[in-house]
Specification:
The structure is a homodimer of 333-residue chains.
Chain A lengths: L5 E6 L3 E7 L2 H11 L6 E3 L2 H10 L4 E4 L2 H11 L4 E4 L6 H11 L17 E7 L5 E6 L13 H5 L1 E7 L6 H16 L3 E5 L3 H6 L1 H11 L2 E5 H7 L5 H11 L2 E5 L5 E5 L2 E5 L13 H14 L4 H15 L11 H8 L1
Parallel strand pairs in A: 1-5, 1-8, 2-6, 3-7, 8-9, 9-10, 10-11
Antiparallel strand pairs in A: 2-4, 6-7, 11-12, 12-13
Chain lengths: 333, 333
């Protein structure tokens, strides 16, 4: 087995975020009319995406997607890695490609030539800084087993899978195929559960994946409770600890808990003077953690790097770093 | 003459901004290779736009264009108005349309169906907060006299023209046509000089426009010096004062000077704790000034509203307001 060339290769939805400020009343109206759930991610189709867009306020467009955000953070720490995901051959697709490649992230998945447009996530940020996401997956759901670059995966220490991709059947197969390729090469597989509703939609498949293929699990409190249908956080933690080598569970303002081989590490959240937009908090926690992990740091240090990145991303609009995470980590050390 | 329905209708380039952080070294390299001028706006063609984009860091896309930014600020104060400008029938064009209409700004110019793409401005923001702009005008230069909606213009107190449009001959005719329509309806015409290099490229035409058609002139120090080819600020001010009813000249951190009918008003800049990105400072000064003016405020109050808006926009990335200017104005009063 040769030494890995890269730290992390991610497999995820290729999405462009359209971020807009929203009042609480607008979310309430949209909930009543369209079932929008504040703070969660709702899947929408193209016609609903167009309808919602026309009702939203002015927006800012920026590359997003959970695993793409994580790779941007990982690169900002100084990590080398790649991304596997599907855009269409259109303007938003070109923006998504550019933004990853501009950070020296390898991204060679062939764009979809015909059919759906590049996926987009319409994000409404309320005055409390919470984000409510409405995702039109578009071309990103066309990711299939053939797109999973096994050479790239076997060259990476960790293959990181985004739970949101589970919303389409073909992507589930791509996940299993990516996991097998990683393990065949002696590498590790990480998974982010992404969203309690996503877990709810695909609980049995997630459990099977976690039990059989996942070494490192990222989740928040609600997600692991949903995965094990257990309202007691500590008992859900015990269950996840028996399934994976490492579980990193984020708890918002209460920081995070990392469990591995019977040991538990409690990580405090970094102080943030003004929470502007929580989009990307979990993604950047994973970025910091994975950077530390692939650099051989101890688990507590990995968690600390995750907390540093999460604190930066929630202090501004947008899901990706606005400053160098390498610099932030240096200052904190 | 009926009462005007709207405060301001703007005529300008319809551009989407692609904003990216840049090192000083990158600007130096681009200056040596391509003549990029730090702090200024350089016009580029499509192939150079693609080349520069591929070398730039990850970006954020947001609707821009000088006069479009001014209208966004004007609407944020609570003003009612319209915009005349040309996008293409593509994704970036739809983003530009949406962002204006989402602020209740009337924007009915027909998109270009064939030919150039929607124009874009590649903006590099250096660590000192200065922005260096590289504009591919694209479809925006196809704006012609037929696009100038004379009914809309005669319904507005002020028709506001963006100097940047002067870079194409057909647009110059559209300007004159818009000015005549405004004056025929008994309204006022405002012009922003936009950029000292733009003034330099079209000095004779600008002078003719200012002398014959402009009531309110917006400029910064460098622009009026360039217009009158006069290195002495006070003497350039005297010249502009003899040409227009009102001249509002911005001086960066030194605030602004307003001259009208022999009176001079000195406006202090508002304190800004952290200048992040100066993109849109002049545009938002004009927004505040025009809002005050169309609400019948005295010129000193108009200048103060301009300073409030400019201070907000330079404290974050992006050329348009992130908070309500109506609220800021209320707090300041």
């Amino acid at each position: 087995m040769s030494a890995p060339k890269y730290g992390v290769v991610s497999v995820g939805n290729a999405l462009v975020d359209v971020i807009s400020k929203s009042s609480e009343e607008f979310i309430d109206e949209q909930k009543a009319k369209h079932g929008m759930e504040k703070g969660a991610m709702t899947l929408i189709d193209e016609s609903r995406a167009l309808g919602l867009y026309s009702e939203m306020g002015p927006g800012t467009e920026t590359s997003g997607g959970s695993a793409g955000n994580t790779m941007a953070g990982f690169a900002s720490f100084g990590g080398k890695g790649g991304f596997i995901g599907k855009v269409a051959d259109d303007e938003l697709g070109k923006i998504f490609q550019h933004d990853l490649r501009a950070m020296d992230i390898i991204f060679e998945t062939q764009p979809l030539q015909m059919g759906a447009k590049t996926g987009r996530c319409l994000i409404l940020v309320t005055p409390d800084g919470e984000r409510t996401m409405n995702t039109f997956l578009g071309a990103s759901t066309e990711l299939c087993e053939d797109d999973v670059d096994k050479n790239l995966i076997s060259d990476a220490q960790v293959t990181y899978l985004e739970g949101y991709l589970f919303d389409k059947e073909t992507a589930k197969n791509a996940f299993v195929s990516a996991s097998k390729a990683a393990h065949d090469a002696g590498r590790r597989v990480a998974l982010s559960l992404s969203d309690p509703f996503c877990v709810d939609r695909h609980r049995a498949d997630f459990l099977k994946l976690v039990e059989n293929h996942v070494d490192i699990l990222f989740a928040n409190e609600d997600e692991i409770k949903s995965l094990y249908q257990d309202d007691d956080f500590d008992s859900a933690l015990d269950k996840v600890a028996s399934n994976v080598e490492i579980a990193a569970v984020t708890r918002g303002a209460n920081g995070a808990v990392i469990i591995s081989k019977g040991e538990k590490y409690v990580i405090s959240a970094e102080a943030v003077s003004n929470v502007v937009d929580t989009t990307g908090a979990g993604d950047q926690f994973a970025a910091g953690f994975l950077y530390g992990f692939t650099e051989g740091r101890d688990l507590e240090s990995c968690g600390k790097l995750g907390a540093i990145a999460a604190a930066e991303v929630i202090s501004h609009i947008g899901p990706r770093p606005l400053v160098s995470y390498a610099e932030l980590a240096k200052k904190a050390a």
